[in-house]
Design a protein that fits this description.
Elements lengths: L6 E4 L15 H5 L2 E2 L7 E6 L2 E6 H19 L1 H4 E11 L6 H7 L1 H6 L3 E3 L7 E8 L2 E2 L2 H13 L8 H12 L1
Parallel strand pairs: 1-4
Antiparallel strand pairs: 2-3, 3-4, 5-7, 6-7, 7-8
Amino acid sequence: GGGGGGGIRPCGAPAAMGPAAGRAGRAAAAGARTLGQVERKFFPAIIGRVLYICEQHASDERIRLEALQARLRASPELVVASVPHSPPLELDLGPAEIPVALAYRDRLDQWGWRLAAGRGAPPRLLASPEVLGERLTAADLREYAEQLQASCGADALPPAVQRLLNSKACR
């Protein structure tokens, strides 16, 4: 990757490697010229004046992940379901975690965690989300509540949802 703007880069190379480096965007990738397959594992592709060496499995996995993420954005009700607990579960939250969970109750509810909080009684978990057939846990709720607190409520996927999407994309 010299000063001429060309070079060889792995897919996803950092931008510091040249002016057109970084992940090849969809628009750039649409104009890519592939050069076959190497050892049934890699495929070289030329985008502009840059040769990318892409790992087939990682590329396939990324495509599946992006499809799952698009499906989640388009029809969340088809990906996430709130499944009731019978009987409700007592949440084992510490004294500092209870106010956090209650402060972000609406956000937890959006993802399918349903809480019941009585005066003086520990909160109970009435329902938990099921994402693509996998039930999330109280520990996943705690992790998401911690993320919400650390990010001041920034809109992001719960970590457990992202892990599940990654896992499903890998299969």
